[in-house]
Amino acid sequence: MAGESAAGELGVPAGVPERREYLFKVLVIGELGVGKTSIIKRYVHQLFSQHYRATIGVDFALKVINWDGKTLVRLQLWDIAGQERFGNMTRVYYKEAVGAFVVFDVTRASTFDAITKWKSDLDSKVFLPSGGPIPAILLANKCDQKKENSMQSPSQMDHFCKENGFVAWFETSAKDNVNIDDAARCLVENILQNSKDFPVEENDVSSVQLEREPLTAESKSLCC
């Protein structure tokens, strides 16, 4: 899928700042049932349901952000199924991504234990043009259900993120719409900092090329 062209028509007066449009591919990964689909639905459509069906393979959503007066950002969010870490398709799904959310469920310790495996898989399969890892933000989801001692302390989380190469972490709740917009803004800020290294088309479009995958999301079981 090609990037969008830079805004601005012929005849724009000299000295008027050129509007730039970006198309960024962002991954949303983590174990089955941690709430990846719920987070995307809340962020893109401001919707929440207790009964989203489990994603099989990969699903997509598009979020358009008027970042500032001269910058428009389109985020193509790739909702990667929780079981995909055990397959060989993640290399295809991750291709050309420039940022990622890695999600765990604060009420299920096993989903936190799996974070390092997801991050390692991510870092081994997709890179920035400079060769470094793409920016990744850790989401401690379902904080509305958090019980005392159900997750590590903030200082422990800060240390964990530093040790594992996350640029930041946020407690989130798709149900109560907690910190999802803030987490997304933080990720976009980090992506834009790297954008000067992204390939630019001949017509001076700052964009990332995305491939169209012939994949659809089917349903077998329920997740929140």
Automatic annotation (TrEMBL):
Keyword Electron transport included in the entry's annotation: no
InterPro entries: P-loop_NTPase (IPR027417), Rab29/Rab38/Rab32 (IPR030697), Small_GTP-bd (IPR005225), Small_GTPase (IPR001806)
Protein name: Ras-related protein Rab
CDD domains, sorted: Rab32_Rab38
Keyword set includes Membrane: yes
UniProt source species: Pyxicephalus adspersus (African bullfrog)
GO cellular component: late endosome; lysosome; membrane; phagocytic vesicle; trans-Golgi network
Topology versus the membrane: Lipid-anchor
Compartments, record wording: Endomembrane system; Membrane
Chief location: membrane
Pfam families cross-referenced by the UniProt entry: Ras
GO molecular function: GTP binding; GTPase activity
Function summary: The small GTPases Rab are key regulators in vesicle trafficking.
